């Protein structure tokens, strides 16, 4: 009986230690450990299993600016010039060949222009503030149309000038606290644009991260209104022509030291 009691006491003590350690682990550390598991067997173009996506989404949904040591009154979120677009600050938390974690800090009216995420699954969590997100997916074909189509562009094909048809996936205002947005390699709004309505911060998880040598280059785009597309007039706002462009000259993203809770690797 005495041995059993001692075993029970030890188990109870171990259980308390485990719960105490779980309480001591920071949200950032939990996020890192969750990402390690979620992206462990993934690579370019490989989407994590649905249950793992939900687990990572749940971890991000619970996070706020205080969990990463940010406050809306920090210098990152103030415009210092008025004759050009505000600069955006990027705080680097972690990057490996499987995933990256970082935070974009945007002053009011700052814009991250329309860009893509080749072969990636991306989680974006608005930590505070208000932001407009517009995103697109490529259109590979259109529903059959009884009227003959004279213009080859109307078939949703890329033309000689580089225009390619895309469909709007999201065109929405977000205000924190809100749920995490997720995009996938081939759908979910792989090309998106962020516009800060107020000062705001976006926590981003990319799996895998950008990598120029492996062909995962961040490509920027112009978007143009439609012409002669064989869809009902009320649906034309759901489509646009996209064309590749160089990185905008007025886009300024600067790196800064992340000073929030540390990640133990």
Automatic annotation (TrEMBL):
InterPro entries: PCO/ADO, RmlC-like_jellyroll, RmlC_Cupin_sf. It catalyses: L-cysteine + O2 = 3-sulfino-L-alanine + H(+). Its cofactor is Fe(2+). Its EC number is 1.13.11.20. GO terms for biological process: detection of hypoxia. It is an enzyme of class 1 (oxidoreductase). It holds the Pfam family PCO_ADO. Coiled coil: none annotated. Keywords: Iron, Metal-binding, Oxidoreductase. Residues 7-16 have a biased composition (Basic and acidic residues). GO terms for molecular function: cysteine dioxygenase activity; metal ion binding. Belongs to the cysteine dioxygenase family. This is cysteine dioxygenase.
